[in-house]
Design goal:
By secondary structure, chain A is an all-alpha fold. Chain A has 14 helices and two strands. In chain A, helix 2 runs antiparallel to helix 10, helix 7 runs antiparallel to helix 10 and helix 8 crosses helix 10. Helices cover 76% and strands 3% of the residues of chain B. Chain B is built from twelve helices and two strands, in the order αααααββααααααα. The chains are: A mainly alpha (321), B mainly alpha (289). Chains A and B meet through helix 5, helix 11 and helix 13 of A and helix 4, helix 10 and helix 12 of B.
Chain lengths: 321, 289
């Protein structure tokens, strides 16, 4: 965290020295990073594997799109409505999903996301079906948000919201509730004995995580000015999970790095290697087997492995002597 | 007014689809019951089996060879995967399996796209299966009848092996307590590899048998894995009987839904699942907490 200030300063000043398409790329990276970080609140800290995180993302994007197109609301209001809508919606869904845990939880989230996908795909009259909704405008509204209409203005809005959410998330995971969630992850029985209520804590992690994804989705809608059912497809849920695990779950910065790698890889390598997903999938598998803490945690993975080897050798010597 | 012919037609369609879905989910359930792995790559392996079968059938000019090649190729791939990667992870928690098999599904789907190209693929049915059977005065595709019979045959065979043979006894013993079974002198590692291979073989066979109905396409694996997860949730994780019952329920919902409420058919399956889970969180035949 000691690099937070220079990194944020660098991000904020980026439009002054980077060419335009890099600012666009950076906006995309930041949105995906926010998405991945929000998922990690659930995967890394509560160890609830979700294969349906596209659901809050896509719903956030669709709600924002509705607010912009149908309601003709100003952009900040549209984003706010999207976040609130995802927050409210994720409470009953989280209540249902947290009835299960582990693998069953993962499958449930996947099925709910598919349900959302099916609705967006089939309900032509409202969602535009497979065509999605286009023609979004970043309506500045009467309060002088005109700057948001421009590419750089939107970039600054994104930076502000992403950094702000990251700060809130870091406060949350270190709060009493955040540490309680980790306690449940580490040893549920003991946590119950202390007096924690795992189900409620899981639900809280779920709702907070989904709300973050809803914000990312709303930003996505405002960024591309277009939403389609692809935002709800399970492949997106998979990609964001890959970003989390690749970067390192259980930290907030790891998933953001993983997300950046994936966006850059998808953009840059697709020109060279025709099959970036294949390459990414292989890298992902290697990381899962060799470095369970991801790329950001690779140092601790190596030192853990060395310590384990040393310990077993000591034990062998002990037995031999 | 619903005529009995339409009803009969829909019922047979339901059974044919259920037979395909059951073959897919029984493999998944078998693997989960014994290895405690929810195999996310099951759909990709299903697709792999289908494409291998299609190629073999095209090469040798007969549909039947695919019935051997598809399960064999899928089983072999599963065996290799278990042997090289899954073995290293048995000491970790279930989440690692979900991730590694998901990674495999990405790699496999992408490899299939690279090897076979993005076009859809079909297989030519032999004469005996491509015609129609007359049920009363109604023609009905023979292939679907073949699927139903095949499904019943596989179901009976599996039940027999599981409940009446020594192999089935061993499998159930490992599912109950792997360490104890190992202590009794059974090679649990070998049994695990075999189980994984057999589960994948079922997926491959299911994929190949599905081709004449849905035609092979990139993405058929994704559709299959979602369906089978829904079925497993409805039936109860790890219950073979539950996976059959879930398959019939989902097939029923999809077939009748497509006929009567095509707009809602896609959603109906998930609503069915949510309804079941509200009623019984562990699924219809799963263990209840």
């Amino acid at each position: 965290m000691k690099y937070a200030v220079p990194v944020v300063a660098l991000l904020l000043s980026a439009p002054f020295f980077l060419p335009g398409f890099h600012v666009t790329l950076l906006t995309e990276i930041l949105i995906f990073a926010l998405f991945a970080m929000s998922l990690d609140v659930q995967v890394g800290y509560a160890r609830m594997f979700s294969f349906g995180h596209a659901a809050p993302y896509g719903v956030g994007a669709y709600v924002a799109a509705f607010a912009l197109v149908v309601g003709k609301l100003p952009l900040p209001i549209a984003i706010l409505i999207a976040v609130v809508a995802v927050f409210i919606l994720s409470i009953p869904i989280g209540w249902l999903c947290t009835r299960a845990s582990g693998v069953a939880f993962a499958m449930l989230t996947l099925a709910f996301a598919q349900l959302a996908f099916a609705v967006a795909f089939k309900w032509n009259a409202v969602t535009g079906g497979s065509d999605g909704i286009s023609g979004l405008i970043r309506n500045p509204g009467p309060w002088g948000f005109a700057g948001l209409e421009s590419r750089d203005g939107y970039y600054w809005l994104t930076v502000t919201l992403v950094v702000g959410t990251a700060w809130l998330a870091s406060r949350f995971v270190r709060s009493p509730m955040g540490t309680a969630i980790v306690a449940v992850r580490e040893n549920e029985k003991r946590a119950i004995a202390i007096g924690y209520e795992p189900r409620q804590l899981r639900l809280a992690a779920f709702v907070i995580s989904n709300t973050g994804a809803g914000l990312a989705g709303a930003l996505h809608a405002g960024f591309l000015l277009f939403v389609s059912p692809e935002l709800l497809h399970w492949t997106l849920s998979g990609y964001v999970l890959v970003a989390v695990v690749l970067g390192g779950s259980g930290t907030l910065i790891g998933p953001m790095i993983g997300a950046a790698l994936m966006v850059i890889g998808g953009h840059q390598l697709s020109a060279i290697a025709t099959s970036w997903p294949l390459f990414m999938g292989l890298l992902f598998m290697i990381v899962v087997v060799v470095a369970p803490n991801g790329l950001w945690g690779i140092k601790s993975s190596i030192s853990n492995a060395l310590a384990l080897r040393k310990a077993s050798r000591l034990e062998m010597n002990h037995v031999a002597s | 007014m619903i005529s009995w012919q339409v009803l009969l037609n829909l019922t047979l369609n339901t059974l044919a689809l259920a037979s395909l879905l059951a073959m897919l989910t029984m493999g998944l359930t078998l693997i989960f019951g014994i290895l405690r792995i929810m195999n996310f790559a099951h759909g990709a392996i299903y697709m792999f089996g289908a494409y291998c079968g299609i190629s073999a059938a095209a090469l040798l000019g007969t549909f039947w060879v695919g019935l051997l090649v598809a399960p064999f190729a899928a089983g072999l791939l599963g065996c290799i995967f278990e042997f090289t990667l899954l073995r290293r992870l048995y000491r970790r928690d279930g989440g690692s399996f979900l991730l590694i098999t998901f990674g495999l599904s990405l790699v496999l789907s992408e490899s299939i796209r690279l090897i076979w190209g993005p076009n859809t693929r079909d297989v030519e049915l032999p004469e005996i299966l491509s015609g129609v059977l007359w049920i009363g005065d109604e023609p009905y595709p023979a292939y679907r009848i073949f699927l139903i019979l095949w499904g019943i045959l596989v179901l009976l065979a599996l039940t027999y092996v599981f409940l009446r043979t020594r192999l089935g006894l061993l499998i159930r013993a490992i599912a109950q307590n792997a360490e104890m079974t190992q202590a009794l002198g059974i090679d649990v590692g070998l049994m695990r590899s075999l189980t994984f291979a057999v589960g994948c073989a079922f997926a491959g066979l299911g994929g190949y048998l599905a081709v004449p109905l849905i035609t092979g396409y990139i993405g058929m694996g994704g559709a299959a894995i979602i369906d089978s997860f829904v079925i497993v949730m409805i039936g109860g994780m790890g219950s073979l009987f539950g996976s059959v019952a879930g398959s019939v329920l989902v097939a029923l919902t999809q077939t009748f839904g497509n006929f009567y409420l095509p707009e809602l058919a896609l959603v109906a399956t998930y609503l069915l699942m949510i309804g079941v889970l509200l009623y019984r969180p562990g699924g219809l035949f799963g263990e209840q907490d």
